[in-house]
């Protein structure tokens, strides 16, 4: 490590500490270094790279939002993803056509969620024929319609986080601290001191805290709870049959679920909304019978031909916030900003969350 040390206790000192090496933390660290390449940054993870929700994320990016603030975050993230792709020579994202199954009466509400102001339109005969070939037994009620929107994207969140961390760590003076579980952040001697569970310490001028689902068990727990943050199980099943080339994603809008082709894995991802609240990453998390019933119900109603292929999947926890709107705000000190509340969409909103966190930090602590 080439960090400076404090005059007093010899604790390594950094200009910025980023707690969290997931999508949000790695983006915050990357933007910090881009803004000021001389800034010394420590990225901290309680375990190692890929310890969090980002590793298991389905990486589906539908730039939508259920309120204006969420739509603004989604729209800004789209711009930032495009910038990343241009700078890095790719951001691990591929376009995917998206079709929506929604109750006819909810069509206008769906259109209102589109962050780019775009509109869905009824599928053409050709698009319907492709859907019927792709989703065996495709069925829906008379009161439901199939709609098409512009293409959206499927990303590789962990690949992106790793790529960004590599960029950050390529700058002299920056470091990744693994196995450093931050238990407290306090101001001492004009600096922030970040203490770890084993008693070791570093100091920093500023800190971004992006702990993902560990939010309620760490240094921002009290501030996060005060703002209504909770944790919830997130489940994405695997449908073990290969998606054909060019297969569209199918969003089951009213069930808050989607079927996404996962070409690298040679299977589909069926994301459902698990009802298991208050399930943090420290607990044993498993796909259980209730999740499977939900998934089977959806497939039985809409894609019965996929039922025999429903096998296993991904399960983890995520931080959910009121209105599913991420919280990016100071936490007890102007030099400490938390960026939390992926709410099951933390990959697609991460660029704007990270940018907002740095804007807030730089603005609050500007001298
Ligand atoms: C199965 C599944 C499917 C998903 N699908 C999608 C999707 O299709 N699209 C989408 O947009 N989103 C999706 N999400 C949500 C998205 O993945 C998450 O919202 C996002 O990855 C959260 O990123 P994060 O950086 O906030 O947290 P994480 O990736 O969980 O990272 C948290 C980091 O903080 C560190 N940390 C925490 N506490 C401490 C501490 N005290 N000290 C040191 N380090 C600490 C951890 O080590 C880790 O590095 C999905 C999530 C899951 C689980």
Automatic annotation (TrEMBL):
FAD dependent oxidoreductase domain boundaries: 15-355
Pfam family of the protein (one): DAO
Top-level division of the source organism's lineage: Bacteria
InterPro entries listed in its UniProt record: FAD-dep_OxRdtase, FAD/NAD-bd_sf
Name under which the protein is recorded: FAD-binding oxidoreductase
Organism lineage: Bacteria, Bacillati, Actinomycetota, Actinomycetes, Kitasatosporales
